[in-house]
Amino acid sequence: MAKIQMKNAIAELDGDEMTRVLWKLIKDKLILPFVDLKTEYFDLSITERDKTDDKITYDAAAAIKRLGVGVKCATITSNQARVEEYKLTHLTPSPNGILRGELDGTVFRTPIFVKNIKGTVSCWKKPITLGRHAYGDVYKNCEIKTPTAGKAELIFTGSDGKEIRKTIMEMKGPGIIQGIHNLDKSIESFARCCFTYALDQKISVWLGTKDTISKIYDGNFKEIFQRIFDTEYKAKFDAAGIEYFYTLIDDAVARIMKSEGGMLWACKNYDGDVMSDMIASACGSLAMMTSVLVSPDGKYEYEASHGTVQKHYYRYQKGERTSTNPVALIFAWTGALAKRAELDGTPELADFAKRLEKATLDTIEEGTMTGDLARLANPAAKKTVDSWEFIDAIAAKL
Ligand code: NAP
Ligand code: MG
Questions:
Q1: How far, in Å, from the CA of 194 to the mean position of ligand 2?
Q2: How far is CA 213 from CA 103, 140, 164, 248, in A?
Q3: Is 77 a pocket residue for ligand 1 (Cβ < 6 Å)?
Q4: Percent of the chain topping pLDDT 90
Q5: Ligand 2 mean position, distance from CA 344 (Å)
Q6: 308 in ligand 1 pocket by Cβ < 6 Å?
Q7: 54's torsion region: left (phi>0), alpha (psi -120 to 50) or beta?
Q8: pLDDT digits (tens, 9 = 90+) for 229-262
Q9: Residue 120: what pLDDT?
């Protein structure tokens, strides 16, 4: 059988621990037998990042920008324990943070639905894609525990030397104060990432903030989204039959809980932190959640939203064949291959990506699955398998 040809390469970012083991298995069993795979390979394992002082991560980001498409394995974010475990020379920053910064991108997470894993919210028929603005607000705050009564003020000194000063509160006793910020440029990029990805997926965008209370701060998010939408995206949204919908954040939450899903929910940083965990837990397993980093100018990096599954890796190293779920990793590959096919105009590759997704979902829906899903399945799993058997079952269908 002739293998499917690729016109252009995708950037391939390898990673750590159990997901690195699965990464090779997925390539060997599910992709390389069918596709004449073209990738530019970057080893983002913790030791390689340490050795190159993160140059490898910056090189990978440059390749994603140049090629337009990347696929990434999960990676260890180092901490003191990891420095000792891997004999690192220093603490390296989060590679996902570097990639997000280099691409000026937003991460979108979407659950993968299968018929026999019922989510806890019965009205959600279609997956909800959540986009979190990962800059500023309370995550870059400045806080003071005020020891006495006193006057709390907000002071801004402009680069032109002009000062703006407002009284926050004449405090009658000890308390707490907090300063937060955001930047128009970051909010504009976030808006463009959301609208770009919604067009890509042909789904509507929802944004909720509390602009009735926070007229200037949250109001700025509302204004910027509306301006970018009206000037850059409205015509394209009309043509695609999708819409941009703004409402108050509490109304957005109430409506989401009663909706059938299927929208892109753009969230401010804190809302996104909280709501992404709500959606993930309502949809079942961490391993059934895809993640894609999208830049404002439409570069895409696909990954799984879970980590390196460290505990499974230690068991694997002792010789155990773990039942680690590879679905989100498989979908990272199919997402990247489908995007490559779309950009290159190679329908055979697009078709392969679809067939690999279908073979994966059919395997689960017919009752063969990893342990994390078997615990949730209804009707019950027919066969609970390890990762190797699961991937073999998918390969047999392909
Ligand atoms: P994790 O790798 O997501 O795993 C946490 C737990 O979730 C696992 O122990 C396992 O539960 C379950 N799980 C996650 N993925 C699974 C899968 N595919 N199949 C079955 N079960 C799965 O998070 P972590 O253990 O907190 O983090 C490990 C490392 O990953 C850390 O070094 C962290 O820095 C890194 N990390 C990387 C990324 C990324 O690169 N995108 C994201 C998050 C974390 P049971 O043990 O109960 O089976
Ligand atoms: Mg959270």
A1: 19
A2: 33, 21, 21, 10
A3: yes
A4: 89
A5: 36
A6: yes
A7: left
A8: 999 999 999 999 999 999 999 999 999 999 999 9
A9: 86
